[in-house]
Amino acid sequence: MSKRLLPGQSVGIIGAGQLGKMLAQSGQKMGYRLGVYDPNSQACAFPLAHWKQAASFDDETAVLNFAKEADVITYEFENINGQILENLAQTNKLPQGTDLLIHSQHRLMEKEWLESIGVKVVPFRKAENWDQLQQGIEDLSYPVIIKTSRFGYDGKGQFRLTSPADLEQNEADLKAIMNEQSCIIEAYCPFAYEISVMVSRDQAGQVELFPISENDHQAGVLFSSLVGKTYPVAVTQAVHEAATKIAQAGKLVGVCGVEFFVTEDHQVLVNEIAPRPHNSGHYSIEACNFSQFDQHILAVTGRSIQPIKLLQAALMINIMGQHMSMLDEIIDHFPQAMVHIYDKGQAKFQRKMGHFTLLAEDIQSLETLLQTDQLLLTMKSMYHKEK
Ligand code: ADP
Ligand code: MG
């Protein structure tokens, strides 16, 4: 199915958080009518929408009703119930299909699928009960990271274990979790650095990659993305190959974020995928000819995606709840930055409230800034303590 939407036609977005908001902004720029669906009627994309529906993600009738107003449906929220997704796909309004979404909803299935298409990942084991968990840890040896198969994000639902004592300490929590869902045990990857790339594919099968972004996570949450560095050819080739395989095998339509670990000896392993715009691609709004949101709208509306050019080197910094009281300082200190505030209401600790992007002709100046700027170092340290 490939139908092309013309400006004036309607795109419905499931999920109205900041990703939905920035998608809606791109779509509106191109003249589309945008609808949003979210359980939270205060969600930040609601004020922008041409039509909206506040209802549970599990409310099939409401989702299908919402879809009636749309010429195509897309999503920024990944955990849509499988049956609802199937029914949405039946309406012929879901150009993204269901494959990639279903693989990425479940960390264990995701890693099994990635291996099956020849993409390298860290060694892992499945744990559905305590015996399997102990056996899996023995196979992989400490340190390991245990993650819930479903519903984890921003480091939530993860246990980092370095010794049997750590396991013992978390025994009750892990057993309670495994009563509800399976876990994945991953060998800890001693990566030299973490990178990600946004890969895009349109309905005609054209694949285009965004530039590589180097990501710094603090307490499992993205702090910064630096874009424009040069990497060893072995790394760029491996990234290109893995992202292209994922896009093609997953029949991607739109953009998909692919996160990687890179080791000291230039081994490139996929950490996870997110079949939608991704936080580490926000820099593209200011730094590229087409942003990740523009490209996604082009793909789902049946238009041709475009080759991506990085116009300037970029540094994106997240603004979390704990940084909101520093906004005036941020604006004073970086008057040249484009500061995005999502309007999400209460500024809670570790809640993504906005981001800003700095551009430069040369990557070196941004790298130095990231390493030495006092305000950035303060923002970085604030991921580790609750105020
Ligand atoms: P989330 O969905 O929360 O982003 P991730 O699996 O990407 O979950 O984990 C968040 C961060 O935790 C990663 O970006 C990385 O810094 C660290 N991490 C996760 N898995 C591993 C691993 N196997 N080895 C080393 N670090 C890891
Ligand atoms: Mg991640």
From TrEMBL:
Coiled coil: none annotated. One of its GO terms (molecular function) is ATP binding. GO terms for biological process: 'de novo' IMP biosynthetic process. SUPFAM superfamilies: Glutathione synthetase ATP-binding domain-like, PreATP-grasp domain, Rudiment single hybrid motif. It is an enzyme of class 6 (ligase). Its EC number is 6.3.4.18. It holds the Pfam family PurK_C. Residues 111-301 form the ATP-grasp domain. The keyword Ribosomal protein does not apply. GO terms for cellular component: cytosol. The keyword Manganese applies. Pathway: Purine metabolism; IMP biosynthesis via de novo pathway; 5-amino-1-(5-phospho-D-ribosyl)imidazole-4-carboxylate from 5-amino-1-(5-phospho-D-ribosyl)imidazole (N5-CAIR route): step 1/2. Its cofactor is Mn(2+); Mg(2+). InterPro entries: ATP-grasp (IPR011761), ATP-grasp_carboxylate-amine (IPR003135), ATP_grasp_subdomain_1 (IPR013815), D-isomer_DH_CS1 (IPR029752), PreATP-grasp_dom_sf (IPR016185), PurK (IPR005875), PurK_C (IPR040686), PurT/PurK_preATP-grasp (IPR054350). Keywords: ATP-binding, Ligase, Manganese, Nucleotide-binding, Purine biosynthesis. It catalyses: 5-amino-1-(5-phospho-beta-D-ribosyl)imidazole + hydrogencarbonate + ATP = 5-carboxyamino-1-(5-phospho-D-ribosyl)imidazole + ADP + phosphate + 2 H(+). ATP binds at residues 107, 147, 152-158, 194, 217, 271-272. Belongs to the PurK/PurT family. Catalyzes the ATP-dependent conversion of 5-aminoimidazole ribonucleotide (AIR) and HCO(3)(-) to N5-carboxyaminoimidazole ribonucleotide (N5-CAIR). Catalyzes the ATP-dependent conversion of 5-aminoimidazole ribonucleotide (AIR) and HCO(3)- to N5-carboxyaminoimidazole ribonucleotide (N5-CAIR). PANTHER family: PHOSPHORIBOSYLAMINOIMIDAZOLE CARBOXYLASE, PURINE BIOSYNTHESIS PROTEIN 6/7, PUR6/7. Homodimer. This is N5-carboxyaminoimidazole ribonucleotide synthase. It comes from Ignavigranum ruoffiae. The gene is purK.
